[in-house]
Design goal:
By secondary structure, this protein is an alpha+beta fold. The protein is built from 2 helices and 13 strands.
């Protein structure tokens, strides 16, 4: 049987099923109890399947699409990346009493020195029209008895391929905070036994913020670059909620002066 015939048969069966349940609903007030009990059981099973289908469809059809790597990039960009946490679903939706060194997927790790953790994390499905990332990360911090809280993002090996001191590494973040706090981004580039570090404070005067790391101000050995990672450092996070709607990176050569 061809695909066209199968499609027509499915449509006919769906029309008959809808007509059946429409008649059953209209007659429910007078249907005998034995039949009504059987119909209720079938309706409950059907509703469960329909709810699951609707949930999955809403999740897949909602914008932005899962797995999206799309975001604006500067002219001349030769590498760009959005971490998996912001483009795909994690195995878990949320964590409470989060311990230090907890991994969020393969690329992101949380670090802190609290004696008693009152930190919770939850992955969100972005649905705002302005969002390009499929997912976001919400961090709720209650009592905080530690001295530091950071989110470490390990950049992929491709970020180091052909890396030069003439490169600018750009980080863009869409962030929402419940009350003001300071957030710093520290780029780390390991080359041989040495690690270059550049620190920038995120200007939180807008939801969408951008910082650039200029490698010209480092002593980078271009022939020995091994890895890159970024520490997002949250100063004074107690009793605050921070939502990272998106985090993206790109790399482009600095314009010649």
């Amino acid at each position: 049987m061809g695909k066209e015939n199968i499609g027509m048969l499915e449509k006919a069966l769906l029309r008959r099923a809808r007509a059946f349940w429409s008649r059953a609903a209209n007659k429910a007030g007078s249907t005998d109890l034995t039949t009504l009990r059987r119909q209720r059981t079938e309706a409950q099973l059907l509703r469960h399947n329909l709810d699951e289908l609707t949930h999955q469809a809403d999740n897949r059809l909602a914008l932005p699409r899962i797995g999206s790597m799309s975001f604006p990039k500067p002219a001349g960009t030769d590498w760009s990346w959005r971490p998996q946490l912001w483009r795909g679903a994690l195995p878990f939706k949320g964590l409470s009493a989060v311990e230090s060194k907890t991994r969020l997927g393969d690329e992101v790790t949380i670090f802190h020195d609290c004696h008693i953790s009152e930190l919770s994390l939850r992955q969100l499905r972005n649905s705002r029209e302005a969002d390009l990332a499929p997912y976001g990360l919400r961090m709720d911090v209650f009592r905080f008895d530690g001295s530091f809280l950071s989110l470490v993002l390990n950049l992929p090996d491709s970020s180091c391929d052909g890396l030069l001191r003439s490169h600018l590494v750009r980080m863009e973040v869409i962030v929402e905070v419940e009350k003001p706090l300071e957030i710093f981004a520290r780029l780390n580039v390991r080359h041989g036994p040495n690690t270059e570090q550049i620190v920038r404070e995120l200007p939180l005067n807008d939801d969408k913020v951008m910082v650039e790391f200029d490698l010209a101000y480092t002593k980078l050995n271009e022939k020995r670059v091994e890895s890159m990672w970024v520490d997002l450092i949250f100063e004074g996070p107690e009793m605050n909620q921070v939502t990272l709607r998106d985090v993206t990176f790109s790399r482009n050569p600095r314009a010649d002066l």
